[in-house]
Amino acid sequence: MSNEIIEGILEAIYLIFTLNPEVWSVIEVSFRVSLTSIFFAALVSLPIGSFIGLREFRGKRFLSNLINTFMGFPPVVMGLIVFLLLSAQGIFGSLGLLYSTTAMIIAQFLLAVPIIVGTGKAAIESVDPALKETVLSLGANERQLWWELIKHSKKSIIAGFLVAFGQAISEVGAVMIVGGNIRWATRTFTTSIVLQTRMGEFGMAIALGIILISIAFILNYGLTRLQGGDK
Amino acid sequence: MSERRTIKTIISEHKIVFLIVIILITGVSFGTFFIFDILSARNPTRIILATTTSTYDSGLLDYLLPEFTQKTGIEVSVLPVGTGQALVYGENGDVDVILVHSRSREDAFVNDSDGQTPYGINRACVMYNDFIIVGHENNPAELLPNDNITTVMIKLKDSIDVGNSTFYSRGDGSGTYSKELSLWSYISVTPDVEWFGQPEMYTETGQGMAATLQMTYQDTDNKGYTLIDLGTWLSFNDTYITLKNLAESVVGEDKLLNPYGVIPVNPDLNSHVKYSSVLKFVGFLTSEYGQNLINSYAKNGETLFHGAFGICNSTHNCPTTEEEVIFWTNYQQEFT
Fold it and tell me: Is ipTM over 0.85?
């Protein structure tokens, strides 16, 4: 087995440096789906999460519990739901979106929203209440207060994005169901690794795993730097 | 924060005690599982069979295996994978016996030329079934019921080229995929060259037969076609009502016969395989009793598999040798 790992590492290097079109297609699909879904999820979830974190209202506890539950929503179940909605017999079947990257983005988006709402809410809530009072006493309106709180909890919010991104890029069940693992179209790192393992192509599977981990590491490193180099 | 610090202090003060406790707990639990696994792995009354999804999904094994267990007391654990993966499992000695359908790769698996030790020995031809082409009933490629397979493939290629049809391919190293490639090769087409990087023309699903059929059925413009074995098709044709077997005459055509071979993993290469139990298993499958069971398995009144031990020949794309028949006769007596 150990020689397969070495073989995988060598193959990974070879595949990257020869610009293997299949590997590039897989990289492109994986990142396009993950980044697009996280981008739109952030756009929707950050206002919702910070609103819930900022305000007190009836049913807040219930809503918080609901969000926390959905943060751990099983991805395959989400895949199944999106599949049923988009399949030819489903409500949105006429759109013909099944087995497309759009379908994958929809599933990933729905999985990411609760994560970003939940972490965003927690980030806003964890800001020192004294800061809130100070800002208000300086005559800030609610929108200015909201912006100040966002700036102060920047790190936690970015951490939330990273968690959501990590889930999206490493997810396999939902993207397999709604994307269909189509070569050149909807095949991602994870579904490709499943396929290569099934075919006994362990070298290629390990190579893809190594590339995925390396790219994720570089991206995380960049984002951590973005969080602020003060520490 | 303060609570975490207290826990930290407690741990650092009693480091060694904690370490020993953790090591003991993990050691004992892992040890128990380990011993349990070793004991069950040595158990000769349980063999592992790696096979294709078609034999499993069609329900054939669920029908055959209880009979075998009842007669011999040997249980068979089934790993339904693809032919490609089953062969790799066999090469690594992770399973005891394989049941697959790709004659050229089976021959490579038992190849003992140049003095090399083969991965498997005493291959036996067990049964065959047919492959068919299914597609949407509006039939954009205009396949006719009495077209032969060469005509079917040419029509499909022409229709794909002008964008009227999409072919759904397994693309996964399975026996079905090997067969599909050989069908394209009859009309000198290599899909990976012909439709390179064009999934809207030639869709490689990289998934099992059931998932690929589902994707063909879901094709947005109702222009999907796929190659499928008759056994799996009969298990699903009630579900996917708009899909039809469009070239009926290809059933039984030589080029579409799908012979299955059973191969024991070579005990000289992997001493831990339960060769003696495997001999009984293959003896059961190839015996008159086993062959009759295979022939009697039907769905919606249609026979899915045809017993082929000893009668397989080059027309079935699966020539049988005399040695093969003589060798297995000894092990069949128990079951006749």
Answer: no
User: How many whole angstroms separate alpha carbon A83 and alpha carbon A79?
Assistant: 6
Backbone angles phi, psi at A85, to 5 degrees: -70, -35
Residues of A with CB under 8 A from a CB of B: 21, 25, 87-88, 96, 98-99, 176, 180-185, 187, 191-192, 195, 197-201
3-state class (DSSP) for residue B183: helix
Chain B nearest CA to A195, separation (Å): 6
pLDDT tens digits for range B244-260: 887 776 666 778 888 99
Sign of CA dihedral B173, B179, B180, B181: positive
* Contact call for B217 and A187, based on CB within 8 A: no
Q: Residue B131 in 3-state DSSP? A: strand
Q: What are phi and psi of B97, to 5 degrees?
A: -155, 150
Measure the CA–CA gap between B126 and B136, rounded to whole angstroms: 33
Min Cα–Cα distance to chain A from B326, Å = 33
Residues of B in contact with A85 (CB under 8 A): none
Q: Is A209 helix (H, G, I), strand (E, B) or coil?
A: helix
* Cα gap A105→A178, rounded to integer Å: 10
> What is residue A44's predicted lDDT score, i.e. its pLDDT?
94
Nearest CB to A183: which of B88, B89, B206? B206
CB neighbourhood size of B104 (10 A): 10
The answer, yes or no, to whether residue B43 has pLDDT greater than 80, is no
CATH number of A2-226: 1.10.3720.10
The radius of gyration of chain B from alpha carbons, rounded to an integer in Å, stands at: 25
Give the separation between CA B170 and CA B176, rounded to whole angstroms.
7
Instruction: Indicate the burial class of B147 (C-beta count within 10 angstroms; 0-12, 13-18, 19 or more).
Output: buried
What is the rounded CA–CA span in Å between residue A50 and residue A204?
43
Average pLDDT over residues B285-295: 94
Distance CA A165, CA B230 (A): 43
* CB within 8 Å: B206 and A98: no
Q: Are B6 and B35 in contact (CB under 8 A)?
A: no
The torsion of the CA quartet A72, A75, A81, A85, rounded to 10 degrees, works out to 120
